[in-house]
Write a structure and sequence with these properties.
Chain B: One of its GO terms (molecular function) is protein methyltransferase activity. The complex is a heterodimer of chains A (274) and B (141). Chain A has seven helices and nine strands. Chain A has 274 residues and is α/β, with parallel strands linked by helices. The longest helix of chain B is centred in the C-terminal third of the chain and has 16 residues. The chains are: A alpha/beta (274), B alpha+beta (141). The complex binds S-adenosylmethionine and zinc ion (2 copies). The site of one zinc ion (ZN) has 8 residues of chain B, from loops.
Chain lengths: 274, 141
């Protein structure tokens, strides 16, 4: 059930929007950058749900392995820099041994598991891969983001489907603008065979018909546009975290909260493995 | 996929966690296309710290499978005579040469195409365009 929902509203969607999504993800967030820059030389870590790998090159003095469920996004990461260490894997079934890594990050990923039990399980799974005393930095989208363009805020539903509008591909753009207009509107009617006294009425009628054709055309174009928009809108499932909830989930997962805060419409926690 | 990554990959199948054969995965040399990237810079201190964190037996096993028989069975130690372990600044020339070789193997060598399998369940994972895929098919997930 939960897994099917994640398959349909998360995994499938990220593959469909991968290249467009990747174009929008290039700016590293400051607190994540700071966390990575403070890892000692030669630390070994993982980035769970690394997307296009925007955090994999921040600190050249650590060895970081990025994994993501979306092969589309992992290919984007590999194309951006083929020195990135990336692999395709499920964040709940990470192909690493336990107690292995010095640190982990998982940025804007845990909110994609669709039940609280699974989110706690996912955090627990990440913690299981790091050594005792090691730290994980976890970000989840916040419910409290009044000033953002989405306008989510306290009191709203926390389990939401968030639209992603794909920009039209070049092919689609061409087909809609190059398509010959279905009818060319004439500028004046042909009156050669119309008796003089009927001409006024004929012209009035012609005007009415032309106007109707024009309206029909506009309507059709609007409908086409709407259909394209619908086809290009993909919905991703998110659980929007409310203040304090991520800390609770990290504690339920067996971790110790070392720090927490809010950045870029997300709540974050630095959680230590006991 | 860099050689070093093989030291951090096990079988994704949950049931294999109960076996000691889910790590390292088995690499078939004849089915793997190996490439070298000489642009990866040598940083002795970085590598010394990495070596502290690797499973040496797994490195030796995978290297053999990929056709490199030259590694010693025990992890090389880089303790300088003054007892200062793991500081790159006082390595002997011989030690630096050993480290340089390991740099070439662990960080400059990668598998571009190929496959790896679990020694326990024999499930095969593919490596395409340098990217290993460890997702499981539905019947194993
Ligand atoms: C909002 S993006 C964040 C990507 C990246 N961490 C960043 O900060 O740019 C969410 C990512 O989580 C990945 N993801 C979702 N569910 C996952 C799962 N079960 N296992 C691994 N990755 C998952 C998606 O494929 C996507 O790349
Ligand atoms: Zn197995
Ligand atoms: Zn490549």
């Amino acid at each position: 059930m939960a897994e099917q929902k994640e398959e349909e509203y998360v995994h499938k969607i990220y593959n469909e929007i991968a290249s467009h999504f990747s174009e929008t993800r290039y700016k590293p967030w400051p607190i994540v950058t700071d966390f990575l820059e403070h890892r000692p030389m030669g630390s070994v870590g993982i980035d769970v749900g690394c997307g296009n790998g925007k955090y994999l090159g921040i600190n050249p003095n650590i060895f970081i392995i990025g994994s993501d469920h979306s092969s589309g996004l992992i290919e984007c990461a590999h194309d951006i820099d083929n020195a990135y260490n990336v692999l395709v894997a499920d964040g709940m079934k990470l192909p690493h041994r336990e107690n292995t890594f010095d640190f982990a990050i998982s940025i804007a990923v845990v909110h994609h598991w669709s039940t609280r039990e699974r989110r706690v399980q996912a955090i627990n799974h990440i913690l299981s891969k790091i050594k005792s005393g090691g730290e994980a930095l976890i970000y989840c989208w916040a419910l409290e983001q009044r000033s953002s363009r989405r306008g989510y805020q306290e009191g709203m539903e926390q389990d939401v489907l968030v639209p992603w509008v794909l920009h039209e591909t070049k092919k689609e753009k061409h087909s809609s603008s190059d398509k010959p207009k279905k009818l060319k509107l004439a500028s004046a009617p042909d009156l050669t065979n119309i008796p003089l006294k009927e001409r006024a009425a004929f012209i009035a009628n012609w005007r009415k018909e032309e106007e109707q054709k024009r309206l029909a055309l506009i309507k059709e174009e609007a409908k086409e546009k709407e259909e394209t928009a619908k086809k290009n809108t993909k919905y991703r499932y998110y659980h929007l975290y409310k203040e304090g909830e991520l800390e609770e989930d990290c504690v339920s997962a067996g971790g110790k909260v070392k720090g927490s805060g809010y950045e870029k419409d997300n709540w974050y926690v630095v959680v230590q493995k006991q | 996929m860099k050689f070093l990554t093989t030291n951090f990959l096990k079988c994704s199948v949950g049931a294999c966690d109960n076996s000691n054969d889910n790590f390292p995965l088995r690499y078939e040399g004849s089915k793997c296309q190996i490439v070298q990237d000489e642009t990866v810079e040598f940083n002795p201190q970085f590598l010394l710290n990495i070596l502290d964190r690797v499973d040496w037996n797994a490195i030796v096993t995978v290297a053999r499978e990929l056709g490199n028989q030259s590694l010693p069975v025990t992890k090389p130690q880089f303790t300088h005579q003054n007892g200062d372990a793991n500081t790159a600044s006082n390595l002997t020339e011989d030690e630096l040469a050993v480290l340089q070789d390991l740099h070439v193997l662990l960080l400059q060598t990668s598998i571009a195409e190929g496959q790896m399998s679990c020694r326990n369940c024999n499930h095969i994972y593919h490596i395409k365009n340098g990217i290993p895929n460890l997702l499981l098919p539905p019947h194993l997930a």
